[in-house]
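Regression report. Comparing outputs from two consecutive submissions.

Submission 1:
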Amino acid sequence: MVSGDLVRRVLAGEDAAWHELLVLLTPGVVRQVRIHLRRVGDREDVVQEVLTRVFLNIRSVREDTHLERWVTRIAINTCHDWLRKMKARPAVNWSDLDPAEAEVLSQSLSGGLDAPDHDRTALFELLDKLLATLHPREQIVIRLLDLEAHSVQETCDLTGWGSSKVKVTAMRARQKLAAQFRRLGEGPG
């Protein structure tokens, strides 16, 4: 946890304090970016963008602000902005699946999915492909609510969005994922 004293030293312009703050914040930023961005090549750029936004806006932080939560919000919103810029959200087709993902899908549709460790990787890859078909806001909400197991209120706090927006976004995203899953379940063709 970042202490108030460290923030005061950063605001005073102490270089060592900035370095210490970056060491404390970077792992959390990397984690958030890894959760929300599928493309590995984009992650380093987004981490740098998040840390730059923190640097440029640190003076706006109130003393009673939970700094890690503030940085998490910046990271999530930066990922959201990045996803919006990417725009392409193609549908996933059977031909897009590698053999392990196709097998996981087939097992899941037949109700026989006992995901041993080697299937878990394929399952997560398939899930990432399906999530990438959603709008950026939907991706963020599903990852926070369903994959990270945050509550609606925590998701609101992390994104700055209202509870109605989060709930409606989650409902629509789940409907889209279900439709995509059913479409894939129809098999190749």
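Submission 2:
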Amino acid sequence: MNRMIIVVLIGALAASICYGQESTSTPGQAGPAAIGHGSFPVKIISTLDSSKLKDGDAVQVETAGSFKLADGTLVQKGSKLTGYVTAAKARSKGDPASELSVVFNKLNVANGKQLSIKGTVQAVSSPPDEAAPQMAGKASGAAGGGYTGATVGTVTNSQSGSNMETSGSSQPGMDPKAVGVQGMHDLSLEDGVLRSKGKNVKLGNGVRMILRVDILG
């Protein structure tokens, strides 16, 4: 009888230890820390329409200029960023506005490498005149890419406390310091959420967005 009691007590003690380990380890886990941050322009390549999208739908844009990461990696113009819809609503009777919100979580760089990011919309502008771009600086001879073209700055490391740095003039709609909505009527942007008093929020091909991005690695 005593032996059975001892066995039961040992089993209960082992179970409580395991439960304690699980309950203390899970809350302490944290997401990946940002290794760099900055703001840069992207171009919409497939129309975003809040009346046709729903939460969780995948979206894709591409970089509208080149820029460098904190480690010197050049992200070429046309690199793809992927993300998803977090809110999409057409305005119906009684609604004050239609809404659209997207976030981005992946950035493709050279040689098939993909970085995890946390990106939100900082600014939106109508498509600029692409005939004579005037972005800052010249970048040439990117390793393995043979890329030559304009750069729009550098994504700084996480300790710098500054956004992407640029020099010279930039093409309208491509200033990394821009905020809000520029050149588009009946559209507002607040905390990453686009709102319109029209029946839907619709951003066509070529519309520019400035993304504020944390590079997670």
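Expected: both submissions complete independently.
Actual: both completed, but the second showed a warning that disappeared on reload.
Relevant detail on submission 2: The chain has two domains: 1-30, 36-215.
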